[in-house]
Structure formats: structure tokens, C-alpha cells
Amino acid sequence: MGASLDKPKTDKHNEHGCGNGLKYGVASMQGWRVEMEDAHCAITGLSDELKDWSFFAVFDGHAGAKVSAHCAENLMECIVNSEEFRRSDITKGIRSGFLSLDNSMRTLPELASGEDKSGSTAVCALVSPQQIFVANCGDSRAVLCNSGIPAFSTQDHKPVLPGERERIQRAGGSVMIQRINGSLAVSRALGDYEYKNVEGRGPCEQLVSPEPEIFVRDRDEKDEFLVLACDGVWDVMSNEDICDFIRSRLLITDDLEAITNQVVDTCLYKDSRDNMSIVLVTFPGAPTPDPEAIQREKQLEDIIERRIKNIISENEKVSFEKVLDMLEEEDLPNLPPGGGISAKRSFIESIFIKLCPEQANTLSVSDEVPQSNY
Question: Where is the secretion signal located (predicted)?
């Protein structure tokens, strides 16, 4: 997992955009990790020939940020410039793009010398007017919400999966404590060249494979949104949690950056200890702000504020932790599904600090109010 900071870095990187009938928002946070190793890519309109295509991706680096950053800059071009893609064989073009990128990165000086041993998972989506192509390599994940439920998700590539374990063992490795040779927690990734040097075996037969698993799905008018995120998100929220939470937030606001910020804040408060990155892509069928949902959210916040005032008035020099504990014990109405009280943590902190500024120093290092830089 790597070393942790004394307190999390909660400032965020945000992006947003729209095109081809899609909207997207991005949020990433370093969190408790010593280094930010995630990267991402979001493009609507790829070229003159592919102006109605879009590309989105999340890359979760490990042992450094070199490979994840390089992949974010180059994977899309490797895919669309492949001979197979130009022949309109999209799935083979995606596979070829992954493998060619992994092969070419070997020549980067830091990687070729072994000075940099980093690797990266990759999950990406190519969205055409008719179809969605999703490719996954590692344990970052894509989930598609259709009609309010997770209708599709990628499979995390872990060494304990039977097919992955077989390949690892055939290449002379072992799976211990759910890791390759007791060390690496993912079985497919880009980079990680120290795990890709078994003679006599092809690139997809090594201890770590760069081969993506590719899924194709016809677009549907009931498609609502697609989520691409690293395991810092999925460690603490399930596919259903994410779909329920984001859907509830889309009924409150159409600001996708704000929604992705709420996701990573909620994950931090659910005790995710990893970097966190999320790309949220909405389709024309996505929920839109609803006056009744907005009113319910306001009523919830009014109830929380009144309850905090009561707790403070009834308890001398009460700490934030005590306030939070008491709120968690209550059956508060209309908490965000999939997020619960953690999704309102920032609001609770803001009210507490407003009412008890002299008690602000009682917040623990993990309770600092997150700040956004967008």
C-alpha cells in the first residue's frame, strides 16, 4: 500500500467538459498517500475523422507516477492510430494500442535502466454514437448506470483469480498474501517491467500482463452515466453505492465537478487510504435536478444544523468527534443513499466550526475540512 502522510492532502484537481451529447466531470485527490500517482484523460471529439467519438480513462500508478502519466498522455493515440482501429476493428485496435504502448514505454530511459520500476492500471472508455467500448487492465473499474442500477461493470484483475493465478504460475511466479510473489496486488498492468522478463513467453504470458479485457455495449436511451475510478474509490464504495450516490446527487445539481468532489470526500470519510480519482460521464438519459429532491436535501441540512445546535447547547465544550458520534446514532431522514452520514461530513464540520470556532482545533487530522481548487 505504501507509506502514509500524517494528515491527508485534500485539495483536488478538477476538470469538466461536454461534447457529443455527453458531459463529464473529474476529481482527483492525493489523500493519505505520500505521492499522487493517479492520472486521467477526458476528451470529447478525438479528431476530424472521429469528431463524434469520445475517450475517457483513469490510470492508477504504483511505485511511482511515471507510467500512469505517460499512459494518460499516449494511450488514446496508440489505440486510434493502430492499424486495426483504422480498419474499423475497434476491439483489436484497443488491444493493439495497449500492447504497443506497453512495449514502447520500455525504451523510456528511466524505465529501460530499471531506475523507475513503476506501473499503472488502466480503465478506459471509447464512446461512439452507437456503442461504448470499455477496456480494463488491473483493478481500476468502470461501472455503467442504466435505469438507476449498475447494468455493467469491469472485473478487477487480481492475482487470486483462477485464470490470473494460472498465468502467473506458468510464468514461474507464485501468489502469496493475494499478491504476485507476495508483492504486487494487481495481475495486469502497464509498466511493471521487472515482472515481464520471463524468456520464451509472450507479453501476455508474463507474471503481469498488459492485455486489457475489452467489453462492447450498444448504447441505450436508458443509459444514465458511466463511472471510471481507481481502487481508492472502490475500496470503500460498491458499484451499487456509487450508482445510488451519484444518481441522488444528479437530482440535486448538474455540476459534475461538485458531484465528483463529493464522491472523493465521501470515500475519504469512509476511510479510503489511497489516492482517489474519478471520471463521471453523463449520457442524455441522466437524471436532472429535481425541485423535490433539492427540497429534501435542504430539509436534511436544516435538521442536521438544528441537531448540532441542540447538542452544543446541551454539552459544555463538546468536541467534533462527540457531535459526529451522536449524529451517527440518530436516524436522520433522507441521507444520501450509498454515502450515508459520511456524505454530509463536510457540511457537519462547517456548521460545527461556525458555531464553535474555539473548538476547531478538536478536529483530528483526518477530520480537516476538504478544500477544492476548482
Answer: none
Contact 30, 9 (CB under 8 A): yes
Torsion angle of C-alpha atoms 145, 44, 249, 342, degrees rounded to 10: 90
Instruction: Give 290-347 pLDDT, tens digit per residue.
Output: 999 999 999 999 999 999 999 999 988 888 999 999 999 999 999 999 999 999 999 9
Q: Residue 139, Cα to own-chain centre: how many angstroms?
A: 10
User: Nearest CA to 227 among 251, 250, 253, 210?
Assistant: 250
Count Cα atoms within 13 angstroms, Cβ side, for 127.
26
User: Which whole-number Å values give the CA distances from 175 to 159, 178, 210, 271, 277, in the listed order?
Assistant: 6, 6, 18, 27, 28
Cβ neighbours, 10 Å, residue 352: 25
Q: Which three cell numbers stand for residue 189?
A: 498492468
d(CA 47, CA 264): 32
Residue in the structure block whose three cell numbers are 447494468 = 151
Q: Hey, what amino acid is at 140?
A: S
Query: Can you tell me which residue has the cell 431522514?
Result: 333
Q: What is the pLDDT of residues 10-57, one digit of tens each?
A: 999 999 999 999 999 999 999 999 999 999 999 999 999 999 999 999
Identify the bridge partners of residue 120 per DSSP, sorted by sequence position.
61, 190
Q: How many helices (H) and strands (E) does the chain have?
A: 11, 14
